[in-house]
Records
---
Amino acid sequence: MKSTTWGPVQLSDRRCVQWRVGSVGLWARAFDDEWEIASSYDTSDLNSQDCPEDVAWTRFVTVANDGLFTQPALPDRPVVIRPQSPIVILPCRWGRFYFSVPLWVRFVSQPAGRSATMVEIPSQNLSSTWFGDMATGELCYAIDSRLLRRQPSMDANDAFGRCELEVRNGSRERLQFERISVHVEHMHLFETEDKFWTNQLRVVFKGADQVSQLTFLPHPPSVAGEARIVCQPRVALEKNILKRSFNLIREITGI
């Protein structure tokens, strides 16, 4: 990807660098065998010529002249997406949908070719949400991205990863939902010429009282074009998994 967001951090003559990814401002500076990193979702300080002192800096002790790199990563929890309007998938039917996921900025130290993650910073300040009931639910992130049908957004934005989601109704009832949980912690991140994509995900709905079958395909969708892996899953899988994936309309309205 042709971007100054990701890759080696090049210090200026002031020994300090600042940039923006999504809605977060980032700063990095070096002192002998240390790197200092700061972030803020108030990006007004990015207009300054110098690194601000009123943000919280974190010091990382490494080795002298250590290289610093930034890498994209997917969130560390499932994300919950809302369709633009309630979606109904009839029995034995399926639909293909697209959405975008805010990326994390991973700062990596690479002395002598041995990499170590210093810190990860979300490109957006996401709120937490609980998905499911209190006994079996999960803590997730709520994201603003809407579930889109047919065609993904093709705008270049290196703060987001795009995902293709195939939803199959394998039950004898209508699948009508207003929220869906996507387990991005099990997904790869791929890079094309000007975009990031995850691998494809297939979700099979088995019924209102059943968990769904999730299949993580090993490659990005064909619309992504030629791509290479830039980030491995946070939680690797050896086979398909069963998870609760939908908030059904009737669970909320009682119909």
Note: Confidence is low (pLDDT under 50) at residues 248-255.
---
Amino acid sequence: MTNASLMTFNIAHGRGLSFYQGFHSEKSIKKNLDRIARVIDQNQPDIVALQEVDECSHWNKHINLLDYLQEKTGYPHAQHGVHNTRTGRKRLAYGNAFLSKHPILESTVIPFGTKTLGEKGFMEVKIEVDGRTLEIINLHLDFRSRKTRIQQIAQIIDSLKKKRLDDNTTLPPIICGDFNTSSRMSRDALQQLTRQAAEHADYDYYPKKKRTFPSHFPSRSLDFILAAAPFSITSVDVIKCYASDHLPVLMKFGVAKALPLKA
């Protein structure tokens, strides 16, 4: 059995619990990043999927958040997936990202659209863990509109179908991130993704009941990890902390070594 752990964590551009990162000094942003790094250090996930990670943006002093977190946590592998860019005096470059204890073999970034502010997207990576190739989709969906989220889910379903047709994949991708909707909304993104992905794999979502937002008084579940057989879920925890307005979700899982390796 190959065992591993995955954390999904929306780090809110390094602003901590405040409403806007632009209100912070460079020192304050780095202090918040230090809190995030401590959460990762304390839990030691094999793989960390991050959302709202700036590469170079005016509103948090052009700090490369992934570089900073990688240096603080000591993870040997990192990959940035920028899906929102804006040039000019008020430059923006941010998206999703990964930290990993294991080699990242491939990475693809798919923006959902072409907006220069508030654009969301998803990131696909292949990570080698104990000789197995794990595929992980790290997404961040729109927070304003259910209709938009459903359209974004359709793009992810298209990607799953393409993998089934064109890729010699032996393990279904793990899907994680900030869905910006709860599991109780049957017509919204999480439930729709679970149902529509059934053609590719029989996914289930985690956590079931624990809430992830807002972190100071959690009342909603927005952050999830989806997995399907042959993955076996050992544990799922929502980590209590005040490093972001979202709480991280940590899943420990295994997969049988007897299954065929990816070619």
Note: The longest strand covers residues 77-86.
